[in-house]
Design brief:
four-stranded antiparallel beta sheet, Outer membrane efflux proteins (OEP), two-stranded parallel sheet, alpha+beta, disordered N terminus, elongated, 9 helices
């Protein structure tokens, strides 16, 4: 009686815990909104946009107010040489400085920032895929634990029905007391397995919340993940190959930057204000001045060629990584598709075996009513059913995990 009460109490607690359901999309959206990495990458893109504006602002005329004063007294002939210090000076000048930069040079500098932003955006998409894969993997794991828990509930329901019938038959001396106790041990073991599977699901569900950045220790039922086999994009448009294209453009831009650094540089400058040494008519020392600076690199010890060689090595490295990744990408896609096909074939065989195992239990139940069945045979049939049912659950979870891995490349 106590055993039956414990089973009913367990089922009541478990059913009360699963009053609500959560979907995979819920956890994916929650994880994306909570991810500090995705927020960081978005902020870096916004920061690059500010850098682009700062670059253009720096190419406009730069106006400064400069002021300075000096007093170097001479006492009894002692002091700094007045021819050097002028004894006392004062200046207050507005200065204007304008760098003359070619349009192509400006475009090249802006392009460097744009490429950096594109790289960050692409990295954000890859990071989002990584997060999606991690959340989905844990969701499937937790869902598998939930299915195992529900299956254990189903087993207890089945055993409880058989236990009620067997108890009546034992009281009618159709079966011995030892047969009933043997079956009771199996039921008790199934009850312990139910508690263990519930704890496993709770742990997996808590881990799912942890990965999604949710502070919640409650346990809610998970809906079946609606995963479909993806139609993978062409490798040339995939975000995983786009990064190599962006890196190639970055290297081209770096070479342009090297070229522009050896172009002539011209700066125009002008100032106006007050500048006096107070040696003459100080009130007349207001004025203006204008000038320019010109720089033409002639020889730097061959550094330009060295920078070209360095960029060439980086391009070679990029091509090596891309070629290796291309082989891995195609091999993994083919392998995942093959494994999914094998899982589907195994599921068909398991479903057939499951029908036979369940039919055997039904036949054994009818034989038990007439006393023509050994209890050991019934327990064996139930254990076989448990094994096959468990195999189906694990195979289905494995298939979902494989689809999740294949979905990772679907962008």
């Amino acid at each position: 009686m106590r055993l039956l009460f414990s089973i009913i109490l367990c089922l009541f607690i478990c059913s009360a815990s699963f009053g609500q359901t959560n979907t995979l999309d819920h956890f994916l959206e929650t994880a994306k909104s909570n991810s500090p990495l995705l927020k960081d990458l978005r902020n870096q893109v916004a920061s690059n946009q500010i850098d682009s504006l700062r670059l253009r602002a720096g190419l406009r005329p730069q106006v400064n107010l400069n002021s300075g004063g000096l007093y170097a007294p001479t006492i009894n002939g002692y002091g700094y040489a007045s021819a050097i210090t002028n004894e006392h000076t004062l200046n207050a000048l507005f200065g204007v400085n304008q760098a003359i930069v070619s349009k192509k040079n400006i475009e090249s500098q802006v392009q460097a920032i744009v490429l950096q932003s594109q790289s960050l955006v692409n990295s954000g998409k890859i990071s989002e895929q990584d997060l999606k894969k991690a959340i989905t993997t844990q969701y499937i794991t937790a869902y598998g634990s939930l299915q195992q828990f529900k299956f254990n509930q189903e087993v207890i329901d089945l055993l409880s029905q058989e236990e009620t019938l067997l108890k009546k038959l034992t009281r009618s001396n159709v079966y011995r007391q030892s047969d009933y106790l043997t079956f009771l041990v199996t039921l008790k073991q199934a009850q312990l397995t139910l508690f263990q599977s519930r704890q496993q699901y709770k742990n997996d569900y808590t881990t799912l919340n942890y990965l999604a950045g949710v502070a919640d220790t409650s346990m809610i039922e998970l809906a079946e993940p609606a995963l479909q086999l993806p139609l993978l994009p062409d490798a040339n448009t995939s975000i995983f190959f786009k990064q190599y294209k962006i890196d190639s453009l970055k290297l081209v831009n770096s070479r342009q930057q090297v070229d522009f650094s050896y172009k002539p540089k011209i700066n125009l400058l002008a100032d106006g204000g007050y500048n006096s040494d107070f040696m003459g008519q100080a009130y007349k020392n207001f004025g203006i001045s204008a000038g320019f600076s010109f720089t033409l690199p002639l020889y730097d010890g061959g550094q330009r060629k060295m920078q070209y060689n360095k960029i060439s090595l980086q391009e070679e490295t990029r091509q090596n990584y891309k070629a290796f990744f291309d082989v891995q990408y195609r091999q993994q896609i083919a392998q995942l598709k093959q494994q999914i096909g094998e899982s589907n074939n195994l599921l068909k065989q398991v479903d057939d075996q499951l029908k036979y195992s369940k039919s055997l239990i039904e036949v054994d139940t009818r034989l038990m009513q007439t006393g023509d069945l050994r209890i050991a045979d019934l327990i064996l049939a139930i254990n076989n059913y448990l094994t096959v049912k468990n195999l189906r659950t694990t195979t289905n979870i494995t298939k979902l995990q494989l689809i999740n891995q294949l979905n990772y490349w679907n962008r």
